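Continuing from the previous page of notes. For each protein in this section, the sequence appears first, followed by its structure tokens. Read the first protein now.
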Amino acid sequence: MHLRVAAYAVVIDSERILLSRLRETRARWTLPGGGIDPGEHPADAAVREVREETGYDVELDELLGIDSIVIAGPDLDEPADDDLQGLRIVYRAHVVGGTLQDEADGSTDAAAWIDLADLPTTATVELVDAALAMLVVPRA
């Protein structure tokens, strides 16, 4: 089994969430983020990836949590013999600069603010729901 560790940011402005569209045949929307470079701190990776995929500079507010997923090799976008475990480190962040723009020649091909009310009918990866669940604070 292969292991991929990545960092992502949940950026919500009013009733909208910042998402990136994956450059793949299924063209689903995901949180801006991605793989951590060797020696890179996860927080730095999240900030870098948001900038690369959306054009925005962000400041991290807090670590929301870590999510894990296992994908069978044949089910990967590029089918493989080995399964993949993805560890996804998720931060909450806010925009401090930059301008919305699509990533050129990367793993995503579009960036957009999506109304939270439209998420149920938007093609997203399960990470979006997992990250939003991390934002919900249980009531006492």
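Done with the first. The second protein uses the same format. Note its length before scrolling.
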Amino acid sequence: MFAVIKTGGLQYSVAEDQVVRIGRIEGEPGQIVQIGDVLMLGGDKPELGAPMVSGASVAVEIVEQSRGPKVIAFKKRRRKNSRRKRGHRQDYTMVRVSEILTGGAKPTKGPKPKPERKAPPEKPAKADDAEAA
């Protein structure tokens, strides 16, 4: 099953467990947020909204809040000694789609647990170091 959602003036086609970079939404990493602007539900029986599908929402887990690359806007007016340089970085949110909900249901899944980091292997002590001490 997939859904087409609208957030930040853009439309995204999403499926469960998919990681998507969308425009900034409020929240902390690990928090579950519900997006209620669902334009279409797809699958066995596609359902189109007019303009939104009533009772449908998408629960997403915020993975990371980040910023995009710097974009330089440089303007120059020739023969006028006029230059203007501005930089801009767009704010983004990385989200993982946890559930696609219908019928006004509430999210049931919590945040996905982070995998545990493996400890680096210990290095054996050298024989030369032990004799010198």
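What the second structure shows: Helices lie at 127-132. The chain has a mean pLDDT of 90. We return to this in next week's lecture.
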